[in-house]
Amino acid sequence: MDTTGSFLMPPAQSTYAGDVDALFNFILIAGLIIFVIVIATTVFFSMKYRRKGMATKTSGTDHNLGLEILWTAIPTALIVIVFIWTFRSYIKMSVVPGDAIEIKVTAQKWFWTFDYAEGANSVNELVIPVNQPIKLLMSSQDVIHSFFIPNFRAKMDVLPNRYSITWFEATSTGTYDLFCTEYCGKGHSEMLGSVRVVSEEEYKKWIDEGSDPGKGLTLEEFGRKLYVKKACNTCHTTDGSKGVGPTFKGVFGREEIMEDGTPITVEENYIRESILEPKAHIVAGFQPVMPTYQGLLKDREIDAIIAYLKTMKAE
Amino acid sequence: MSNAEGHPTHLAHHFSTTEQQKDSAKIGMWLFLLTEVLLFGGLFCAYAIFRAWYPDLFHNAHSFLDTGLGATNTVVLITSSLTMALAIRAMQLGNKNATIWNLVATLGLAGTFLVIKYIEYSHKFHLGQLPGKYYTFTGVEGGNPHIFFSIYFMMTGLHGIHVIAGMITIGWMLYRTTKNHFSAEYYTPIEMTGLYWHLVDLIWIFLFPLFYLIG
Amino acid sequence: MSTATATNYLNEAKGWKSWLLTQDHKRIGIMYLAGIFFFFLVGGLLALIIRWELFTPAKDIMEADTYNRFFTLHGAIMIFLFIIPSIPAALGNFVLPLMLGAKDVAFPRLNLASWYLYVIGALFALYSIISGAADTGWTFYTPYSTSTSGSVVAIAVGVFILGFSSIFTGLNFIATIHKLRAPGMTWFKMPLFVWGLYATAIIQVLATPVLGITVVLLILERMVHIGIFDPAMGGDPVLFQHFFWFYSHPAVYIMILPGMGIISEVIATFSHKRIFGYKAIAYSSLGIAFMSFLVWGHHMFVSGQSELASLIFSFLTFFVGIPSGIKVFNWVATMYKGQISLKVPMLYAISFLILFSIGGLTGIFLGAVSVDVHLHDTYFIVAHFHYTMMGGTVIAFLAGLHFWWPKLWGRIYNETWAVVSCLMIFIGFNVTFLSQFIMGAQGMPRRYYTYPEEFQRLHGFSSVGSLILGAGFLIMTIYLLHSIFRGKKVGRNPWQSLTMEWEAESPPITHNFDKDMVLEHGPYDYDIVDAKYTEEGTL
C-alpha cells in the first residue's frame, strides 16, 4: 500500500495525486483547528455564562475592532494560501505532457470503450503502462457521463458534442476502480470498469494481442471471454435472473415473444441482428436501451459470441 | 377595504396613508419588471451565445425576416406607449373620457401589433421556417438554421404572450375606469399598467434590431 | 383555542373558507407551514427508503428505475417544496410584519396568490409522480432529461410555477420591509432576521426568473425539440448547466440566509445579550447575496468549461466563505458574558453552529478546484450539502419553529420531549452524514443504486443514522401536534425577547397589535432595557 494518500483518501497512485492529497490534508487540519476553537468556545461560554435565575441587564459590548480584524484576516490569509496551492496543482493537472500516449475513450449507456492507436480495443478495462503519461480523448455516444479513477484523483465529464481531455501518469502497477460519476440512468451504478496498470513489456504484449484477441482460443472460449470483455454481462445474466436485458441462460433456441406479440426463435441471425441493430426486435417486457455494437465487433467476434450462446441452449 | 376612521375606500387597512400604499405599489411593480427583465435576460443570453457560435447562420437567416413589417410593428408599439402615457395623464387631470379613449387606442394598437405578428408567423409556418425539429425550410445557408428560428420564435412568442397579458390588464383598467374606480387622487393601478406596458414596448425595441436589422 | 374569552387570528373567523380565502399573513404562514411540513415528511420518508435500499451493496427492495425516481423526488421535493419556502414563506410570513410592527405584508392578496401558486406547483409535482415520475435527479441535466422516458415535463412545469410563488413572496417582502416598518425603526434597528429575509428576497427576485426561463427551455426542448440543448441539433447541453446553476447556486443562499437570520435572533435572545457585530452580520448577508451570483461555475469544474473559468470561479467561491465565517464568529462572541439559557431553540442554535461550521469548512475542499476534481459527484458532496442545507437550514428552521411556536399558537410544547428529539436529530444526523464524507473521499460516486462491497460498512452506518434521525422527527411531529391543542399556555413574551413580535398577544389578534406600534428600543438593547415580563412568561 502506498502511504502518500490522506488517511481519508484511497492510496495515491498518480503523479499529481500526492499534490491533491497534501492540499486536502492542509485544509483538513486548518479546518479542524478552526472548528475546534469555535466549538470549544461555544461550549465554554454556554457553561460559564449559564443563566442563573431571572435575566437582568447584560454587558453592551457589541464590537471589538482588534478581534474583528483578526477573525477576518486569518481566514482570508488561509484562503489565499489555499487558492495559490490549488492554482498550482490544478495547472499541473490541466497541462498534458507532450509525450503522453493517446487513448480514445467512448462512453455510452452503460459501458466504456477504449481504442488504442495500434488498433487494439477493449471494453470496461483500460490497460496502461506504468510511469508513462496517458492522455484520454473522451466523447459520449448519448448522455453526459463522467470518467473517474479515485486512486489517480482524475475525473472529467464525457460529453456528447465535443471531446474532453484528461491525463494522468500511474506510479505503481495494479488494478484500480473506474467509476461513472455523472448520473446517466438505469445502469449508472453498473457503469464500472477497471484500470490495469502494467509494466512496459506487459503493455506491449497486450497491445500486440489486442490486434488478434482470439488467438489460441476455441470459438466458445473466445465468446465467453468477449461476454465479459465487451460488457454483455452488465445487462445479460447467465444464471436466469432478469437483468436490464433478457438472460442468456437457455437463450439459444428459446422462443421469445416480441413487443408486437410475434414470436421469434433465437437463432444465429436473430443474435447477429440483436448485436448490430438491437432496437429492431425488442423482447416484450424490456426497454429498447441496448446500444449497437456496429463497428465495435469484428465478424469473428460475433461468430464467437454466437458460439458461446450455443453452449447455453434451451433444454 | 375598510371605511372606518376616515380611511378612504381605496386605502387597504394595513396602510396608514395613501402615499405609503402608492409607494409600496411602485416598489412592487418595479421589482416585478426586474424579474421580467431577467426572464427575458436568459433568452437574450441564449441569443448572444448562439450568435457567437454561428455568426454566418445568424447573418443568412435574419434576411428571411420582413424588416418592413418589423419596423411597422415598432412604430405601432411606440405609439401605443404614447397613448398609454396620455391615458395616465388624463386621469391625473381627472379627465375620465380622455382616459377611456386613450386606453381604447392602446388596445387597438396592441391588437394591430398582434395581427402583423400573425401575418409574419403564418408566412414562416407556410415556408417551414419552424422551430427545432419541425423546421423544413431549405433556403438558409449554414448548419443548424433551426436554432435561429427556435430563438426567434421563443423570444417573439414570449413577448407576444406579454402583449396579450398587457391587453387583458388594459381591458380591465378600461372597465374599472368606466365604473368610476379611479380619480385624480387615486389612479395607481392605471399607472402600474402603464409601467408594465412600457416594459413590453422596451423589450420589443431590443428584439427588433437584434433579429431584423443586424446581420 | 387560546384563552377562552380573547379573540385572536385563529378563532376570529371559522370554517375552511375563512382559511382558504384569508389575506391575513399569519394564517397564510400557517397554511404554508402545513404544506411544507407535509412535504418534509414525504421527502424524509423517501430518504429513509433510499437509505434502506443502500444498506447493502446489492439490490434490496426496489428496481434501479424506482430508485432513480426516489432520489429525484427526494431532492426535488426537499428543495422546491420544503426548504425554499420553509423559512421565508412559512415562518417569515408569520413573523415579518410582527417584527416590523406592521399590520400585514404590503400585498396581502398577492401573498395568498403565492400560496395558491405553491399548491398548484405542488399538484404538478404530485401529478408527475402518478404519471411515471422523473428520473433525472433534481438538477434535470440535459441531454438525459430531454431523452429519458420519465415524466419530466409535469415536474418542470411545477418548478416553474413554484418559482413564481417564490418570486412573489420575495417581492412582497422587499416592499413590506421598505414601506411598512413602524415609526422609529431605521434600517439598522431592524432585527437581523429581517435583514436575512431582505437579502433572501433580493436573490429570489433576481435569480428565480432565470430558473423559470431555463425550465421553459427544457420543456420546449422536450416537447418540440428546439435544439438549444441538444448536441445532435447544434445545441449545447453544458449551456443548460450554466443556466441552471446561475439560479441554483444563489438558491442555496435563498435557503441559508433566512436560517442565519433566525440564528441571530435565537442566540441574542437566549444569551440575553446585545448581538455582537450587528452591522457586520447585516452587511455580510447582503455581501453573500451579491457574491452568490458570481460563483455558479464551481458546480462545473469537471464539465469541460475552460480551465481559466474554473480558476476564476474557484477564487470567487472562497470569498463567499469569508462573510459566512464572520457571522459564525459574531454569534459565538455574542454569547460572551451573556446570560445563557439552554432552552430548545438555543440547543438548536448550538447544533446549527456545529453542523453549519462543518458544512462551511468542507466547502473549502470543494472550492479548491484541484481537490474538487476528486470529490465532485461523490458522497463528499452529498454530505457537504446535507450539512449546509439540513444541518444549516433545517436546524435553523427548527430553532425558529420552536422559538416562535408559542407566538403561533399561544401554547408551548413539552420541553423534555423536545430536548430528546433535538439530541436524536443531532446524533442521527452526524451518524448519517459524517460517514458519507469518508465514503466520498474514498471515491464512492453519488446516485449509485448498487455499489462496490468496500463501501458497505460506511453505508451501513449511514443507514442506521437515518433511522435515529427519522425517529427524532417522528417524536417532534407528535409533541408539536399535541401542543397545538394540549400544550401549556404562555403569555406574550415567554423568552423575554426585545424584538417587536413579542409585544403582540400570543397568539396575536387579527390586526397583530392592539395599538399603533412605535419603536421604543432597539431589537437587542439587553444592556439598556429590562425585557417585559408577563406572569405566564417566566422561564
Describe the structure.
The complex is a heterotrimer of chains A (315), B (215) and C (539). Chain A has 6 helices and 12 strands. With 315 residues, chain A is of the alpha+beta class. Chain A has 3 domains: 1-45 and 65-95, no CATH class; 101-211, Immunoglobulin-like (Sandwich); 219-310, Cytochrome c-like domain (Cytochrome Bc1 Complex, Chain D, domain 2, Orthogonal Bundle), CATH 1.10.760. Chain B has a single domain (22-213), classed as Four Helix Bundle (Hemerythrin (Met), subunit A) (Up-down Bundle). In chain B, helix 1 (18-53) packs antiparallel against helix 5 (145-178), helix 4 runs antiparallel to helix 5 (145-178) and helix 5 (145-178) packs antiparallel against helix 6 (188-213). The model of chain B has no long low-confidence stretch (mean pLDDT 90). Chain C has a single domain (16-537), classed as Up-down Bundle (Cytochrome C Oxidase, Chain A), CATH 1.20.210. Chain C is built from 15 helices and 2 strands. In chain C, helix 11 (344-367) runs parallel beside helix 14 (415-441) and helix 14 (415-441) packs antiparallel against helix 15 (456-486). The model of chain C is unreliable at 535-539 (pLDDT under 50).
SSE order and pairing:
The complex is a heterotrimer of chains A (315), B (215) and C (539).
Chain A: H1 17-48, H2 65-94, E1 101-108, E2 111-116, E3 121-123, E4 125-129, E5 134-140, E6 145-149, E7 154-158, E8 164-168, E9 174-180, E10 193-198, H3 200-211, H4 219-229, E11 255-257, E12 263-265, H5 268-276, H6 299-310
Helix pairs in contact in A: 1-2, 4-6
Chain B: H1 18-53, H2 55-62, H3 67-92, H4 96-127, H5 145-178, H6 188-213
Chain C: H1 16-20, H2 25-53, H3 64-100, H4 108-130, H5 144-147, H6 152-179, H7 192-224, H8 237-271, H9 278-291, H10 307-335, H11 344-367, H12 369-375, H13 379-409, E1 411-412, H14 415-441, H15 456-486, E2 488-489
Antiparallel strand pairs in C: 1-2
